[in-house]
Design goal:
This protein has helices at 2-7, 10-28, 31-41, 44-54, 60-69, 76-89, 98-106. By secondary structure, the protein is mostly helical.
């Protein structure tokens, strides 16, 4: 495991720090809470898929945490749809998922 961790490049680690800083900044200026406001103007079926698209650029874990903290009332099928949409949406771009970032650090042909 130690050798595997040593192989991870500093560019990858800096990317993760950048994502965390971006999400923290979005939270501090109130944009992250605006994402949850979509559920007041849209039906959950449509808002879930929009959140999935947004999760391609913003990490899906903070989006999910923001939605859970907003205490939005949805049926179980809507929650399952939300988790599916953000999980798939996070993988639409290689930078939207942790697995994609690790793959970029291991395969030199994959770049930003």
């Amino acid at each position: 495991i130690i050798d595997f961790v040593r192989d991870i490049e500093y560019d990858t680690l800096l990317f993760f720090v950048g994502v965390l800083l971006l999400v923290g900044a979005l939270k501090e200026i109130g944009i992250l809470s605006k994402f949850t406001d979509l559920y007041t103007v849209m039906a959950p079926e449509y808002a879930n898929y929009l959140m999935g698209i947004l999760s391609a650029g913003v990490d899906n874990v903070p989006l999910t945490a923001a939605l859970l903290k907003a205490d939005i009332v949805m049926r179980q099928q809507h929650w399952l749809s939300f988790t599916y949409a953000t999980g798939v949406g996070g993988s639409m771009l290689i930078i939207g998922s942790a697995a994609g970032i690790i793959a970029m650090s291991k395969l030199k042909a994959l770049t930003f």
